[in-house]
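User: two proteins, same treatment. go.

Assistant:
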Amino acid sequence: MTEKESAKQRIKVIEVDVLKPHKPNLVELGKALCGIKTVGNANLSVYAIDEKTESIKVTLEGDNIDFEAVEKIIDAYGAVIHSVDKVIVGKKKVIDVPKVNAKEVTK
């Protein structure tokens, strides 16, 4: 893929697994992420809590998400990205495909 072709490919949706301290709270982190010019919507969900940290899923939607800016905000809030779990890239957002349970898949 050429640099010009790559420039046309825009990140529409990205989902990351993040480990963060209890403070700042989800609202503050969500507002900071939505403060990024290229992020239109943010969905933050806690799925595990321990004494000092929370594990959260962060799903961001936008027209051309600046992932470097996302990483900087997450780092500035004392959090770390454990993994990038989902990315939708292209000229337009594609329809989400329903998740399939592994037990439902037959050979």
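Protein 2:
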Amino acid sequence: MAHTENQTWVVERGGEVVEKMAHAGGASLSDWERLVYCLWVTDYMLRNAGDFANAEVMYPDFQTDAARLAKSLGLAVTHTTFSLSRRKLQREYFNRFEAICDEIKKAEHDVDA
């Protein structure tokens, strides 16, 4: 699987959100930034561990929060993806990755991030 621009974006933009959260707390994040954090956590777990085994330690509600935030931001592709069963999300994540990233990136300009 070739490295994509969106992989770089998730690492960089997700890192910015993680840094903001560390300095100013989770309450300082916009809904869009919280969604980016959910995506960053998902991506980290699947690319590094290959599954969601560490979800209970890292962020137990990453999937439900991502689905809820995507729905409130009107992001249909992202909402549908994170609404899958955990097992199906794990299987289909990489096939849907580019579309999810493109949708979330586009939404940054539509919301106050």
